[in-house]
């Protein structure tokens, strides 16, 4: 599979896994257990560094409860069971944004002032509104904490 194909599969697999397991943290561990592969292998699938062997695809789609064609990227219609994925209310989205930012602040910049915290939570909230993945948002927020603008 091409790198672009791996990216499509990883994004779709991640959506399906979050829906299946109820959270993004720990998806690789749970998927590895369900698929009978190592955590490293499942993590590579979720990160787009590799894709499953051909014989694993049917089982993967079955576990994730999504059509195989959608998972492979050949069908672009979002499966019914994923249509409410990311449909959080404003309050839920704000809570998720705070949940991304504050643990990072406590670890990376414990003496950050309220203005910095507010700016980072607002940034995370906006990214969530655009449908961005929580892991990517966390990475951006951490990078901004370590290398603040201006």
From TrEMBL:
A Pfam family this chain is assigned to: HTH_3
HTH cro/C1-type domain sequence ranges: 31-71
InterPro entries: Cro/C1-type_HTH, Lambda_DNA-bd_dom_sf
Top-rank lineage group of the source organism: Bacteria
Gene3D superfamilies per record: lambda repressor-like DNA-binding domains (1.10.260.40)
One GO MF term attached to the UniProt entry: DNA binding
Protein name: Helix-turn-helix domain-containing protein
Lineage: Bacteria, Pseudomonadati, Pseudomonadota, Gammaproteobacteria, Oceanospirillales
